[in-house]
């Protein structure tokens, strides 16, 4: 803050008045001269040179073959992913319906376990048939997905593992049905040792 006191004219009460201080013409001229010296000391040539280098680097980066190849590879990957999702969606409803049927038949089989062994064996056979149908649809889906991906893809390996587990489950259910058919009393008494 300047050491001089603020003097207001008070000529117009309608508007706010900004205080000013008087200064000599020499002070004003010195301030303008200092500002011009600072402005002249800026190295515009260097700034423009660096700006041109930056623009050139951006052009090289966006116009390079690597960038174009990366964009093309990304586009191909997105197209393949869309194909995979389409193939999966095509079979997902049927898989879900058959899985639901399998769950319903399994639930029904558990409820009828206390009633009789013959109807139970029929339900187990139906459950096995539904499991086999679901397994076949999983295989069709895996083939469709396998056609989209190469054979070494992680999704293919996961689907194959799932199919192996489903085959094991179906085999276990068949073994249980065969055992119960030969030993229906095992439902009430348990397996004899």
Distance between the termini: 104 Å
The backbone outline, from C-alpha atoms, is elongated
Return the structural class.
mainly alpha
* SSE string: HHHHHH
| Beta-strand share of residues | under 5%
Question: pLDDT under 50 segments (min length 5)?
Answer: none
Radius of gyration: 42 Å
Question: Approximately how much helix is present in the residues?
Answer: over 70%
State the domain count.
Answer: 2
- Count of individual beta strands: 0
Work out the helix count: 6
> What's the assembly state of these chains?
single chain
Mean pLDDT equals 78
What's the main sheet like? none
Task: Describe the 3D structure.
It is a single chain. By secondary structure, the protein is mostly helical. The chain folds into 2 domains: 25-63; 87-188. The protein is 77% helix and 0% strand. It is built from 6 helices and no strands. The protein has helices at 25-41, 44-63, 65-111, 117-148, 154-182, 186-189. Helix 3 packs antiparallel against helix 4 (117-148) and helix 4 packs antiparallel against helix 5 (154-182). The longest helix has 47 residues, at 65-111. It is elongated and about 120 Å long. The termini are far apart. The mean pLDDT is 78.
